[in-house]
Structure formats: structure tokens, C-alpha cells
Amino acid sequence: MSKLTSLPTIVLTIFLLAVSGLAQSGLASRQTARTMTVPITFFSREKSADGPRAEYLEAGYLIVKEDGEPQTILSLRSVTSTPLHLAILIQEDLSSEINLQLRDIAKFIKQLPADSRVMVAYLRAGSIQVAQKFTADRDRAANSLRVVSGAAGMGPRSPYQGLEEALERFDSLPTGRRAVLLISDGLDTSEGVSNIVPGSSAELDRAILKAQRKAVSVYSFYSSGPMTMGGNSRLIAAGQGSLGRLSDETGGRAFFAGSFSPVSFEPFFRELDVMLTRQFALTYLSTHMKKGFHKLEVASTNPSVGIEHPSGYFYR
Fold it and tell me: In this structure, are 271 and 286 located in the same domain?
């Protein structure tokens, strides 16, 4: 067993299921095996009285399954010192309440680690308008934020089309952690309002697949748009369900404050900031050589600890 400790805001103790000798024997006996590395994030299922920064996590034994079969863990290392590349995407036609959140968004950008690169873009009619391309100048990125027009009547649109376009921008970046913060109502009306199904759309499927291929975790903040600000429970459930599925399957997290826009994003940003300090790279021995999509499960024997990770990955 091996042991990892010390993060800036928490103490995290992790025991690996397999010892290095077992891993080495597996490599020697299985010539067709390969190593695979995936990003994972630890979180506590129960918040302490002192808040998330005071939590102590005893993660217990880790278990990795690929396509339902146990795999041998090789290593686990913190990546919090690895540069973060973050694209912030804001839906253009959100309720004007979103403009009250600009100060909190700017504050979050400015407090990112010094080596972070940030892009700011706005989603409009299925495309993106880049306000600031990826830059290491966090002040410049924060200053590129602007008031959204709240333009209604733009016709059918999908925030996931714009997300797909934004994901292409990561290809030119150097190695590092990749993430998107999507601020949206999550509603895809590209196929008509009557055809909306919670957590399901062709555009959403494509965005999830592209994010998984490019190893980008998508975090999402729900905020009301033109069709959800009226409190329509069916449309709100559809939008939030889609954002939840997007974040779950890419290793991020979706943040909601009930059925309406949150009064402030500050609690969301506090939690997101803590999550970004709990990111690890998990390397294991994969026994599956078939090209295509492979389903991934990572769990802990400690029921009070949760692990967020991509639902799978593509092997090419």
C-alpha cells in the first residue's frame, strides 16, 4: 500500500488497492495490457460544521472497474500544481439576474492560481462569441466580462453546440488540467420545445462525447433563461437534468439553487474552489485493448467519501 498526504486546504489520506509488485507482475504477464490515466476528484458526502475547507477525508481503499471488470491501480498523484486551463461560457440570453453575478465571476477568475489560463466566451444561437481567448492574464480575462443582453427571440438554440465549439479551443493549449464552467439554463430547444426530454438531446450527447475525448471536466451553474424564468417545472427539470448529466459524465459537478437563479454564485465558487484543490491523476493497468468507448467506475470503501470522475473514455 502507499500513502498520500497534504493538500493546501485539506488533509487527504488515500490507500491504493494494489501494491507495486502486483502491478509489475501484471505488466509482465499481460503483454497486451496498457496504462490509462484519468482525472478524479474527492469530496465529502457530509459537510463539517466548519465548512468544506475544514474537512478531513479518509478515503479508504480505492477500487477501479473498467467495463465492469476490476483493474490494477498503479499510482495516484495530486495534480493541483499542474496548470489549469479553464473556459468560462455564459449563455447570452439568460435572465438579467445573471448580471448581478459578474462581480463574483470576476473575483473567482482573479483568484485562480497564477499559472492558470482562462477563456471567456458567450453562447448565442448555437455558437460562441469569444470575449477573451485563453490568456494567463487573469485580470484581463476578468475585465472581459460584460453585461449579457438577455436577448429573447433568438430562435431555437442549444448551449451544447457552443460548448462543442469551445472544446475545440483546448487543442492548441499545452499539457495541463482542462475544465469548462458553463453558466446556462441547460435547455436545448434546437429540436422544438415539445420534444424536450430531461437529460437527453443529440447536441448534449455530442458535447459529452467530445469533452470525454478531450479530457475536459465540465462544471455547470444553473441560471434561468427566457423559457425557464417563469417557473415551468418541466422545462426547468429538463435543463437541470441536462446540466447534471453533462457534469456527471465528464467528471465535473452541476450546481443548482432550487428551481430559480441563485441569489449569489459565491457559495458555488467556494465549493468549486475546494474541488479544484482535490484533483488527482489516477493511473491504472487496463486490460481492455478494444478501440472505442470504455465505461469507468472509481469507488472508495469509505461511504462518507465520494469520487467524481468521467463516466468513461475513448481509446483510439
Answer: no
204: helix, coil or strand?
A: helix
Helix, strand, coil % over all residues of the chain, rounded to 5? 30, 35, 35
**pTM for the full model?**
0.82
Range of the domain at 133: 84-276
CB 73 within 8 A of CB 2: no
Per-residue pLDDT tens over the stretch 123-169: 987 789 999 999 999 999 999 999 997 765 555 578 999 999 999 99
- Regarding whether 57 and 69 lie in a shared domain, the answer is yes
Strand partners, 136: none
Given a cut of 70, the residues of the chain with pLDDT beneath it are: 1-31, 46-60, 151-156, 192-195, 197-199
Summarize pLDDT for 223-243 with one digit per residue, the tens.
Answer: 998 888 777 888 899 999 999
Provide DSSP, 5-24.
Answer: ---SS-EEEEE-SS-HHHHH
Work out whether strand 3-4 and strand 11-15 pair parallel, antiparallel, or are unpaired. antiparallel
User: What sign has the CA pseudo-torsion 239, 243, 246, 249?
Assistant: negative
Q: Which helix (DSSP H) or strand (DSSP E) does residue 242 occupy?
A: helix 233-250
For residue 78, the one-letter residue type is: S
Closest CA to 271 of 228, 220, 208: 220
Minimal CA–CA distance to 256: which of 193, 185, 306, 157? 185
